[in-house]
Design goal:
Number of strands: 6
Distance between the termini: 24 Å
Number of helices: 4
Helix content: 25-40%
Order of helices and strands: HEHHEEEEEH
Family: Belongs to the 4-hydroxybenzoyl-CoA thioesterase family.
CATH topology: Thiol Ester Dehydrase, Chain A
CATH class: Alpha Beta
Shape: globular
Largest sheet: 6 strands, antiparallel
Protein name: Thioesterase family protein
CATH architecture: Roll
GO molecular function, one term: hydrolase activity
InterPro entries: 4-hydroxybenzoyl-CoA_TE (IPR050563), HotDog_dom_sf (IPR029069), YbgC/YbaW (IPR006684)
Radius of gyration: 16 Å
Keywords: Hydrolase
Structural class: alpha+beta
Length: 147
């Protein structure tokens, strides 16, 4: 686990709760999208991007989101979601996630979300603001592929 925490400067602790399990006895697939959402917002908060995004005219919007399930997770467990950035373009970037199961000591799920900046006044895509771009680049890593 130490290697995981050294690799991901930004990580989010998520406790698995009983109600997230499905009839087959493991965490339901939709729960991982909630975990990733929690990690995404925590990333914005930990990096200071949340305060930059308080400007109401520009907002990040999800274009798509994806998860790859590697190992089933059951209650009780604690997941640590490592977050990083790839594929920065003028108006978008990709946020990637790796979920580490504490009880299994292994990566159980990976995923990503493509995030597009929008001008909320015009309803059109917009360039990533420079101050936001500077922070995103600090957390940019090479993608491992597996899409």
């Amino acid at each position: 686990m130490q290697e995981f925490f050294e690799k991901y400067a930004i990580n989010t602790k998520v406790n698995v709760v009983w109600g997230e399990m499905d009839a087959l006895g493991h965490v339901n697939n939709v729960s991982y999208f909630r975990y990733f959402e929690t990690a995404r917002i925590d990333f914005l908060k930990q990096t200071g991007l949340l305060s930059i995004l308080s400007e109401p005219s520009h907002s990040p919007v999800l274009r798509d989101t994806y998860a790859q399930y590697k190992r089933p997770v059951t209650f009780p467990d604690t997941l640590y979601i490592g977050s990083y950035i790839t594929d920065i373009k003028e108006d978008r970037f990709t946020m990637r996630y790796e979920a580490l199961s504490e009880s299994q000591q292994a990566i159980c799920t990976t995923g990503y979300a493509t995030v597009v900046m929008f001008n909320m006044k015009t309803g059109q895509k917009a360039p990533i603001p420079e101050d936001m771009l500077t922070i995103l680049k600090q957390y940019e890593m090479q993608s491992k592929g597996s899409e």
